[in-house]
Amino acid sequence: MVNVLFVCLGNICRSPMAEAVLRHKILKLGLSEQISVDSAGTGDWHVGKGPHEGTRRILDQQGISYENMKARLVGSDDFGNFDYMICMDQSNAENVRRIPGGQNANLLFFMDLLPEEELREVPDPYFTGNFEQVYQLINAGCDVLLDRIIKEKL
């Protein structure tokens, strides 16, 4: 099983959107038995809550399930459990590195999947309100990530 973890700040906007989008793509390709996806945050404000209304709205528009998704924190156990830990921005990566065991974590930046984009971080729609922009970036990046996983791990 290949395990993927998306990381953002509160785990209610960007990372659960990426989790839901990648799960949807995996399901469509029949790879659910080979690739597992999760998401987590580095801040504890929303632990136990479902995705943000804006994330739910955009996923509903796209017919993508977010059922049973609840915000959680990145923990030390995650470092040994995930093949890919993908941070939405530099601040998230710095927060992950402060967690015991995180200093040596092999982190990827989501926007490195999209080198042609000018943006180097996924904007946080909790603050910008632009969930559509974030969905477009995440949808494109998840296509690249899935191709990479298939080539590297399957």
From TrEMBL:
The keyword Transcription regulation does not apply. GO terms for molecular function: protein tyrosine phosphatase activity. Belongs to the low molecular weight phosphotyrosine protein phosphatase family. The active site is at C8 (nucleophile), R14, D124 (proton donor). It catalyses: O-phospho-L-tyrosyl-[protein] + H2O = L-tyrosyl-[protein] + phosphate. This is protein-tyrosine-phosphatase. Keywords: Hydrolase, Protein phosphatase. Its EC number is 3.1.3.48. InterPro entries: LMW_PTPase (IPR050438), Ptyr_pPase (IPR023485), Ptyr_pPase_sf (IPR036196), Tyr_phospatase_low_mol_wt (IPR017867). CDD domains: LMWPTP. It holds the Pfam family LMWPc. Residues 2-148 form the Phosphotyrosine protein phosphatase I domain.
